[in-house]
Design brief:
single chain; alpha/beta; Rossmann fold; N-(1-d-carboxylethyl)-l-norvaline Dehydrogenase, domain 2; eight-stranded mixed beta sheet
Length: 311
């Protein structure tokens, strides 16, 4: 399979590494020239629970035009705020048989892709993916570390079983991922969303890793209340959560990534704009649809935006 991974940050690099090792032709597209140069010269160094491995079958390029021809799969691993420009630049590699897999945090990923597809590419298949619990970070150009490898979930933009999604999940399983196709991805997206809401802005405001923040009761209570606001909104919207006890569910997830820094905190430390608008900042927007408010998420989102305004 010919695959383009758009956005070779921490998660995109993991995708590119394992998919390439499984025999796929993989291009990693990213504007970070130092990272691209390191991958092309020395391979990608990936460190996880099983140790460090080097992957040298990835072709790292700065733009889609360098890929040369249409691809079977685009893995869109950019941050949400970069999706419009990234998708608009994909015209040369998209064809009627291409699947674009949106892997962003937060809500609204499929809509952002569909709204920005080039006019010549509206026949492409847009799908959604949910990756959770990796705790990944770029340590240096060409070097990525991750804490866990949890289940990858794939689904259509509308509910229903799909042979395309099952084939996609099989490709990822062959690359060593735990992967499964789901008929109802809305539940899974929201269950990841509430965990992101709990950890992203609070860890950024408190400048703490997940475990360090959870160890401070006052900080954890603020973070947990952010997540519970999102749960209340999701339930009002009719999201069929798989759990009854939200606090236990969120706490268990936090424990599973205790050593990690959320990507929002990593962005803050690198003085980059984050995905605050589609995570904590999205909760008040969804709340308004059902006559609710989300004052804590609104406040923390405003604080993160105020910090980013100084960059």
């Amino acid at each position: 399979m010919k695959i383009a991974v758009v956005g070779a940050g921490a998660m995109g690099s993991i995708y590119a590494a394992l998919l390439s090792e499984a025999g796929n032709s993989v291009w990693a597209i990213d504007p970070n020239q130092a990272h691209l140069d390191a991958i092309n010269r020395h391979g990608l160094s990936l460190t996880g629970p099983q140790g460090t491995q080097r992957f040298d079958r990835i072709t790292a390029v700065p733009d889609a035009a360098a890929v040369g021809g249409q691809v079977d799969l685009v893995v869109l691993a950019t941050k949400a705020l970069h999706v419009p420009q990234a998708v608009q630049n994909l015209a040369s590699i998209l064809g009627p048989a291409t699947t674009v897999l949106a892997m962003q945090n937060g809500l609204g990923a499929a809509e952002r892709v569909q709204q920005n597809l080039p006019e010549t590419a509206h026949e492409v298949h847009v799908a959604l993916g949910v990756a959770q619990g990796f705790g990944a970070s770029v340590e240096a150009p060409g070097q990525v570390r991750f804490a866990n490898m949890k289940l990858m979930r794939f689904g259509e933009t509308v509910d229903g079983d799909s042979p395309v999604m099952e084939a996609l999940a099989r490709t990822w399983r062959e690359a060593g991922f735990q992967a499964q196709a789901y008929a109802n991805l809305r539940q899974l997206i929201w269950e990841k969303f509430i965990c992101n809401v709990t950890l992203s802005a609070p860890c950024t405001i408190f400048r703490q890793s997940v475990g360090a923040m959870k160890a401070v009761p006052e900080q954890w209570q603020i973070a947990l209340n952010c997540g519970l606001e999102a749960v209340a909104v999701g339930r009002a919207l009719g999201v069929p959560f798989s759990f009854d006890d939200a606090e236990t569910y969120i706490g268990a997830f936090a424990d599973s990534v205790a050593g990690a820094k959320p990507s929002m905190l990593q962005d803050f430390e690198a003085r980059r704009r984050s995905e605050i608008d589609v995570i904590n900042g999205r909760v008040p927007i969804e709340a308004a649809k059902v006559g609710l408010s989300a004052p804590l998420n609104q406040t923390l989102a405003d604080l993160v935006r105020a910090q980013e305004a100084t960059f």
